[in-house]
Amino acid sequence: MRRVIEVFPSSHYALLALFFGGGLELMFAFQRLVLFVMGFFLVLVFVGVVIIRTEESEVFHPTQIILPVMTALSTSLFALFLPVNAFIHVYIALATGVFFYLLKYGARQAYPTWRLIITLTVVFTTLASILGWQYLLFGSLTLAVFLAGLAIFLLSCQLVFHSSQSPQETILVSATVTLGLMQLLWILQFLPLQYLAQSAIVTVVYYTIIQLVLGSYDYPVGRREILEHLGVGGVLLGVLLSVSQWS
Asked: What predicted TM-score, i.e. pTM, was given to this entire model?
């Protein structure tokens, strides 16, 4: 096995990603096996984390477990809301690629940009899955907002800890970001927007806030930086609101 890894350094990640994609295909082919497949995904995540823990050695931190688990759960749950047609295979291929790059780069301390990109993807799929359940199946709004807040808090912790290296500061900053976004999410429930649009709006606001938070650890965040990030976020929000279906 070690010899194979030396020749193909990413082969073990590619194999786990292919198993993940195959599991998604099985989940749609045999819909009664959803819980079994979800359990299989957790086993894949466990194996991936063990590999990362071995390769990261002393720099590994338990917060690195959060993103792989959330990625496997959110991408598989979000797939349940997609139409069962040819597009589902495109989505599975994309999810397989995300899982591969997550294991290879996103869950590692040395690749913060990859971790941020994948985290934003997971934020959207997680929120869309939770809000889709609440919107389509008339679930509890309070529970949906709570679950969304819990997901945002955990994902924020694994991002902020890499920069702060202080558990107390990580919890405080993540909790502050989470409370603000939970209030926004609650307000959005009273607007005639589809759950996908709501998820996208919260993701854009999250991107703007977390960029400012992470940037503050690397350089002084002044008026210029704030206006730049608010400008980008404002443009993205404007595009989203203009193309969203209001009903």
From this structure: 0.81
- Of 55, 84, 109, the residue that ends a domain is 109
**Collapsed DSSP state (helix, strand, coil) of residue 83:** coil
Q: What does the pLDDT average to over 162-180?
A: 87
pLDDT (tens digit per residue) in 72-88: 888 888 887 777 777 88
Instruction: Record the tokens describing residue 25, joined without a space.
Output: 């295909």
Of 109, 129, 158, which residue constitutes the final position of a domain?
A: 109
- Cβ–Cβ under 8 Å, residues 54 and 137: no
Rg of the chain, C-alpha, whole Å: 19
Domain count, the chain: 2
Distance between alpha carbon 23 and the CA centroid of its chain, in Å? 19
Tell me which H or E stretch contains 44. Answer: helix 34-56
Q: Which two tokens stand for residue 52?
A: 């990362």
